[in-house]
Design goal:
single chain; 426 residues; mainly alpha; Growth Hormone, Chain: A; disordered C terminus; transmembrane; MFS_dom
């Protein structure tokens, strides 16, 4: 086990590795969005079926496995466990090239979701062990910027590959890098100490106590509600934005992929990485001030989403997609930093897993499906974009949840660090 000084000097390198893990997580998760149109034409899927494969199937596997995975993450070598799950989801993504119809695609997406349930618990627990509380929002921003980078790569690479070699080749291309990184993590990434913040950090907490803490702690519960709403909308946006540009604005598949890739991979990446530093700067050591950046940005996302449905030209639609990219990268760092700061070290993996369960079961599982159902019911030339605007409007509720939840965090930026046991719910 490495000594603490080693981790202090290498913590940003560790954050970079975890960012790459999140990049591959997002790449495999959202590449489906760029191949919706080829799948629809080949298999004659409805929008509801595509929404189920794109969102519900992944979320079923994720939600079934995320709590057991979080429980294991508090009790085992987190790095090796995370690397194993990375190898599994990447290999299964590659096998998606052999899919023959609805149920084979649904099964593939379910297994990928099950393995990807390890990402949040593993990365958030590792970040909380490696970084002090005053740097956690910044570190969370860097790590979660991998989500934006992976989403952007999914659309740019996926759109190009699908345009020239078909949708089956897309699955092969996105699966290989994760298998390679998984092997490297096993060989080169040491497990950091569980925590040097608490004398009993190694004593895992029963899940019923975690659930009680989760529900009764304002900073954890309300931030999780906000994260669930945003997860629903992000899943809907990245699944449906390419079909919107192709169907409603006349883009080719590769051109739409490039636009969405810039929005998700460049603009969302930048806002995710920088929002943590901006939130820390505004907070100035006060964790209860971290709400400003995510709440304001999410409020701006609502008119941008509705505007796409009424954009008078493709150029304006592109600008609004870029605005969405900027606003949707701001919610990762501050709320998750507040949750981890309000959580004792010995239950961070389990709390992170429970937060992801709620976010996916109540958000990502239903977002693309609801948008697809609304689109089928509305019909018409711009039915998908109108349906998307309706779901994204719930970001106003998420903004209020972050404001209320983060303000419930103790004014001390080290509330969990100073505690050797359960934190008093606030």
């Amino acid at each position: 086990m490495p000594e603490a000084p080693t981790w202090r000097s290498a913590r940003w390198a560790a954050a970079a590795v975890l960012m790459i893990v999140y990049t591959l997580h997002s790449l495999d998760r959202y590449v489906f969005g760029v191949i919706i149109e080829p799948l629809r034409h080949e298999f004659h899927f409805t929008d509801s079926q595509l929404g189920a494969i794109g969102g519900t199937a992944h979320a079923i596997g994720f939600c079934v496995c995320v709590l057991p995975v979080g429980w294991l993450m508090d009790r085992t070598n987190r790095v090796k466990f995370l690397a194993t799950m990375l190898g599994i989801w990447s290999a299964v993504s590659g096998l998606g090239a052999l899919a023959t119809g609805y149920w084979s695609l649904f099964a593939m997406r379910t297994v990928v979701g099950a393995a990807e349930s390890s990402t949040a618990a593993g990365t958030q627990s590792l970040v909380a062990s490696i970084f002090p509380a005053k740097e956690r929002a910044s570190a969370m921003g860097i790590v979660h910027s991998g989500l934006a980078l992976g989403t952007g790569l999914a659309f740019v690479i996926g759109g190009f590959v699908a345009q020239h070699w078909g949708w089956r080749a897309v699955f092969l291309v996105v699966g290989l890098p994760g298998v390679i990184l998984a092997a490297l993590m096993w060989l080169r990434f040491p497990e950091p100490p569980k925590s040097n913040e608490s004398s009993d950090a190694g004593q895992a907490v029963p899940m019923w106590q975690v659930a009680k803490f989760f529900v009764r702690t304002r900073a954890v519960f309300f931030n999780t509600i906000g994260l669930a709403i945003v997860a629903m909308n992000i899943a809907s946006i990245w699944i449906w934005i390419t079909p919107i540009l192709v169907r409603e604005h006349g883009f080719s598949l590769s051109a739409a992929g490039l636009v969405v890739g810039i929005a998700a991979g460049v603009l969302k990446f930048a806002s995710t990485a920088l929002s943590g530093f901006l939130a820390d700067w505004i907070a100035k050591g006060r964790v209860d001030r971290l709400w400003v950046v995510p709440s304001c940005a999410l409020t701006l996302s609502v008119p941008a989403a509705f505007g796409i449905a009424f954009a008078p030209s493709p150029a304006i639609a592109v600008v609004l997609v870029f605005v969405l990219g900027l606003t949707l990268g701001t919610h990762y760092s501050a709320p998750k930093a507040a949750i981890m700061t309000a959580t004792p070290p010995r239950m961070r993996g389990s709390v992170a897993a429970m937060q992801e369960l709620v976010a996916n079961l109540g958000g990502a599982a239903i977002g693309p499906l609801i948008t697809g159902i609304i689109s089928d019911k509305l019909g018409g030339a711009n039915s998908v974009s109108l349906a998307l605007g309706a779901t994204v409007s719930l970001n106003l509720v998420a903004a209020a949840s972050f404001w209320f939840g983060i303000r419930g965090t103790s004014r001390s930026p080290a509330v969990a660090d100073a505690s050797s046991g359960m934190i008093t719910p606030r």
